[in-house]
User: Fold these one by one.
Assistant:
Number 1:
Amino acid sequence: HEITSLKELNRRMSDEALGLTRALKGDSKVQGNWGEVILERILEESGLHKGREFQTQVASVDPHGQRRLPDVIVRLPEGRDVVIDAKVSLTDWERFCTAEAEEAREAALRAHVASLAAHIEALAVKDYATLEGIRTLDFVLVFVPIEAAFMKAMERDPTLFSRAFERNIIMVSPTTLLATLRTIESMWRLERQNRNAEEIARRAGALHDQFARVLEALETLGRHLERTRSAYDVTLERFARGRGNLVSRVSQLEKLGAKARKALPGTILAMAELDESAPEAGGADGWTPEPDSPLQQE
């Protein structure tokens, strides 16, 4: 899929380049603007985001006070940068494409290669690594927006690429630049995933600690519920257990004619009457206080 995408992008830009050659030849300003448009399109195709992973036309000043304006600065993870310089030299290339005589074609091709070599030498002198706002600089990429012009120059002078590389300058065409930018985009994606993994680990640890605190609270709540149930059972025991218990005594008041609107709960009343009917030795009225009650102590 990526190879097909690269082929399609290269075909579109080659067609556009051929269509624009006549309009652009001889006007270096228009050529430069067109090259920057092609460069920005490739940056958009790569998946990088303007203002985040790359910036355009960043004005800087070198140590000698000279104002520099790199076409594009691509930000890399771990505080590194790559500068992209859009080199457009259509005049000699157009002469090469339209010349009919072999001698004229050869002269135009030599001029085309010489133009690229001169641009590399001028770029090495600019020393972008010393500019303010440029972080540790790995390479400067020289972008040749016409694939055929790039390939023909490399074929005519195979040392052109190595001479540029010795100066930390890499010559790229639309295809190779897109592949490079896709690699950079993958680096950023991995960087974001690594940062997310650290955040996930931090949040997982916080969630674990919070879950442990909730379980501790549940254990405490369980102990409180057990004590509450125990207190309830003791209270109910003292109200409804034993001969002459308080529940049965209150129930007898209604039987004796006390005017009551509310009936006692049936389950507790049944429990009290069951104990009331059970034979038990006690005092004159058949009721014996619990051993730990104040009455028993008296």
Number 2:
Amino acid sequence: MKVKELLKEIFYVAIGCVLLAFAITAILEPNNLMTGGITGLSLILDNVLGINYTVFYYIFSLIILLTTYLTLGKHEASKIILLSILFPAVLMVFSQFDFKLIEDDMFLAAFYYGIIAGAGVGLILKSGYSTGGTDSIGKILHKKRYPYISVNQIITMIDLVIIIISIFVFDIRVALYAILTQLVLLKAVEVILYGLSPKLVKLEIISEAEEKITDFILHEIKRGITKYNIIGGYSNVSKTKIITICSPRESLMIKNFIADLDEKAFVDVLPVMSVWGEGLGFKRITEEN
């Protein structure tokens, strides 16, 4: 890896950790708001047991790191080891400061938490790393328990369960604001990764690892594909192009999978305004606009 690329990754990770930790300690926690993932679960346990949520966050991060290593292997664990150790430490440092960006306005707090935390998560993902958390849990459950459900759907269900639990610990208003924070956060992540792009993207992939990529998209991402036989204009060699339409988050998962298999792969990412037909996130062709 070139020094310039490494420094760029470190910069993205560092800024991402700072933004995310700031959003949690200066906005989310002081306003008694909730979110999904291990952050939300840690806040729930803090409220129930009276032990600081940063302690639970660190414990969960290390447990997920170990479980990922045992179930998904060393390579997958290497993607989250940095954040599993670094971010909880940054979170603990930030929690020592009594700084509150927004107080007594849950709507503004939920909105700005989503923007700042989403920007932080987006920068971390843009660097090629993973935050671990529910992303890793989703991959583990997909592989070991629910291979017929996509990783993205599993992650969404986990976050939803945590938010539902928060109703019994806090109240329904907190849970409803938690849904708002998740929606804003996810949109902020998409903007960081792809700019102000549509909700769907089309990937055109040319790679020597065609069969493995096909299997990954069909059976783990749960998206359909189309294949074309093409001839390289420079090499005059016959190849296969894989085309799939998916969400920006899923496209990043596919990109990271391909990067591990074939560094020379060619992936073209195109924004999609709308898709008519059968499929997750697509409009039925008979549906009125």
